[in-house]
TrEMBL record:
This is Putative Zn-dependent peptidase. Residues 170-342 form the Peptidase M16 C-terminal domain. Belongs to the peptidase M16 family. GO terms for biological process: proteolysis. Its cofactor is Zn(2+). Keywords: Hydrolase, Metalloprotease, Protease. Residues 17-163 form the Peptidase M16 N-terminal domain.
Amino acid sequence: MSAGTGIQVTTLDNGLRVVTDSMVGVETVSLGVWVGVGTRDETPEVNGVAHLVEHMLFKGTPKRDAYQISSQIEDVGGHLNAYTTREHTAYYGKVLKEDAALALDIVSDMVQHASLDAEELVKERTVVLQEIGQAEDTPDDIIFDHFQATAFPGQALGRPVLGLPEIVEKLSRDDLTAYVQGHYSGPAMVVAASGRIEHARMVEMAGEMFGDLPKPQSWVQETATYHGGDFRDERDLEQTHLVLGFEAVGVHHEDNYATQVLSTLLGGGMSSRLFQEVREKRGLVYSIYSFASHFAETGLFGIYAGTGPEQVAELVPVVCGEVVGVVGTIREEEVARARAQLKSSLVMALESSMARCEQVGQQMLIHGRPIPVAEMLARVDAVDVAAVERCARRLLDSAPVVTALGPLDGLESYDRIRTRLGH
């Protein structure tokens, strides 16, 4: 199946989808495997197993030990990496075009034949526990875990990607094996490649290399239910870190792009309302920005700010005022500027084979098809003032999430913040 200029898709007999995005004029190939599972596909008893599996797949197979996985790709000047999110896991790399087969062979070996050696697990579990400790020591990192957990308390979508230390230190080889066997099947996976690659050759290689995937097993993903709420952690820090958030739409919602335009308009750049009012005019922060996260059936809209303890009392009312003040005051020129920023970021990504590879891989998992760039740009262009207003009103209809770390004496009560936001 062709999905637009240079993009082709083939589904193998085992359900594995292969998507390629051919780029003329480059000498490299970016490729990888995107798996449609992540932290929200874990049970509470094994929170962190998806991320630990990601680590352990680099620790060796019967064919290659951990050093050989690294050295074989670096011997040809390439690199491999991976990441885990709440809904996806990816294993990817970049090599010269003549080494694409080697890179795919290594990745396919990892995802199908990982040894998950017990001794390696002991060491890697310690590494992950150190990673968790490092995140805990980084307030402008860990605050987003608290934000997620407060928005979706006691739910899979609210649990941390890295896992809780008391659970991670108990995860066994059997836990990892069960997770891989239960989730890493053909229909749940996409092989994506971008760069100097022929689709037919990629399909041929994938067919040869991915013959040992486990049979699909059914599992029911827990539906997420948003809750407003308040989380505060008094710490002796130089700064107070804040995230104020609301429920947003899911990734398939028609207002997905309008929400991104709102985020850009409100806190997406130096010309945004929050940056201009909070930093430029009042000097209350060094860093402030907004963001929108879209999941399968719901989403989050948030505003992060880091400020001095003496500025907290002034900052929060100003931010609340800017959020409430969006409704009824959005100007066409603001929306046009935000649309231009989003479109430029989409088009600029086309210059990177890795970004294009990741884009088509994720789109196959989320939408079941690659989304042509022209279609994405048209959807951004279709966002008007009315759509952005609608998104802003929807945010304010949801109970807010307030998360804060650091010195908190100047921070108003949750009920007072709710009142400022019209609740």
